[in-house]
């Protein structure tokens, strides 16, 4: 059997189109959602992502600014920038690109962001609200994964889901969302005993480890839905400038076993950016006390 390839790129394009319509409707109420992205240092991959976030926000009709700071920026200067963005009425979403260069404390930075503008969903208020089922800003990548899963499977009730990876940005909130969708959730990580066997039990397998092609074809339950979050750049082949981008799943082997699978690139990555725009609209509507035009 060959798996259905889940087209995250096309799904994200459709979502951005619907979001652009909401932004246009909000303009009639005098609200323009505004996103501020903070990039510290010159990591080349981060530059690319931040560039696409800014471009896609603008294409959707939102206001978007990128604050580029040198890697040597003192913590106090970064916190001062966040305080000014918290106070800026044109800014509804603040995202500080992670990881930060050495010497900066990501936890302190996250705590400094106004939870109402925390479009990454990393502030303990948002993480806590997600955990107790209260309205929250939810991290973008897990939200995007849920949209793809719901589109592929419909109701997820009763499915056995395995999340590989337990980061605050991805694995933990993914587990919360699957639990809220009535899945039976297993969280796996680097200390998990017999990972292949845990994976083989899963109807839904979400991989977010950052290890190229770690999940093998024979770890996958036949017919399972596989969501590959990993973004790993392989070393360039001889004569090439850039290495290939691959996920955490051995795609070629997995697609022969899975029922449906996301590719890398073109799967979860584009959904992350679309969900960031979605969160920024949610934040703008809550801050202005207006209903979301899209419901
Ligand atoms: N597509 C997108 O939009 C996004 C993609 N990503 C990508 O997703 C991947 C994961 O990102 P992120 O969650 O931030 O990563 P982190 O590095 O923060 O977390 C990695 C997790 O994987 C676990 N892990 C590492 N090695 C193994 C192993 N050999 N066996 C089992 N578990 C292991 C770690 O376990 P432990 O806790 O025990 O150390 C940890 O929980 C990366 O490739 C990243 O680039 C991330 C965000 C967005
Ligand atoms: N505070 C914070 N929030 C994040 O959400 C965050 C972050 N920091 N740091 C880094 C990770 C990674 N991330 C991606 C976003 C889009 C693509 C994406 O669009 N990928 C495309 C291709 C990209 C390419 O070709 O290089 C795809 O998969 O098709 C990938 C990865 C967000 N992250």
UniProtKB/TrEMBL annotation:
GO terms for molecular function: methenyltetrahydrofolate cyclohydrolase activity; methylenetetrahydrofolate dehydrogenase (NADP+) activity. Residues 139-286 form the Tetrahydrofolate dehydrogenase/cyclohydrolase NAD(P)-binding domain. Pfam families: THF_DHG_CYH, THF_DHG_CYH_C. It catalyses: (6R)-5,10-methenyltetrahydrofolate + H2O = (6R)-10-formyltetrahydrofolate + H(+); (6R)-5,10-methylene-5,6,7,8-tetrahydrofolate + NADP(+) = (6R)-5,10-methenyltetrahydrofolate + NADPH. Keywords: Amino-acid biosynthesis, Histidine biosynthesis, Hydrolase, Methionine biosynthesis, Multifunctional enzyme, NADP, One-carbon metabolism, Oxidoreductase, Purine biosynthesis. Its EC number is 1.5.1.5, 3.5.4.9. SUPFAM superfamilies: Aminoacid dehydrogenase-like, N-terminal domain, NAD(P)-binding Rossmann-fold domains. Homodimer. Catalyzes the oxidation of 5,10-methylenetetrahydrofolate to 5,10-methenyltetrahydrofolate and then the hydrolysis of 5,10-methenyltetrahydrofolate to 10-formyltetrahydrofolate. Belongs to the tetrahydrofolate dehydrogenase/cyclohydrolase family. This is Bifunctional protein FolD. It comes from Roseospira goensis.
